[in-house]
Amino acid sequence: LTVTATDPASISYIANYWSSLNAEVVAYVTSGSNVAQISFCESRRITANTAPSGGSYTLTVDQPFNNSGYTKYSIRGVAAAQSLTWRAFDLVPTYVAQHLVKRL
C-alpha cells in the first residue's frame, strides 16, 4: 500500500518505523466531498514500511485488503502486547457468577 502524507514536510520516519510501534493502517473511502461520511473501510496491521521519499512511502500489511479504490488513510500506533492486562473478579452472588458469559 503506497500512501502520501497530507503534510509531507512533517514526515521524518525511518524504514520499519510503524511496524516497531505495533501500528495499523485504516484505509477508507469517503462519500462525496464530506470526509465525515465513510462509505467503507478496512484496517490492517503494518508489518513493514519504507523510508519516505517525497512525502510518500510504502506500507506492508499483514493481510491483503479485500477491496481497492481507497482515497484516505490513517495510521495509528497500537498498545504493545506487554501493556495489555487481564483482571480477575469474584462475583457475588454465586448465581450471577455462574450465569455470566466467560468472555467479554
Give a description of the structure.
- The protein has 104 residues and is mainly beta.
- The chain is 10% helix and 38% strand.
- It is built from two helices and five strands.
- The protein has helices at residues 17-20, 94-99, and strands at 2-4, 23-31, 34-49, 56-61, 72-77.
- The chain has a five-stranded antiparallel β-sheet.
- A hairpin with a 2-residue loop joins strand 2 and strand 3 (34-49).
- The longest helix is centred in the last third of the chain and has 6 residues, at 94-99.
- The radius of gyration is 19 Å and the shape is elongated.
- The mean pLDDT is 76.
Offer a quick outline of the entry.
The chain has helices spanning 17-20, 94-99, and strands at 2-4, 23-31, 34-49, 56-61, 72-77. With 104 residues, it is mainly beta. The mean pLDDT is 76.
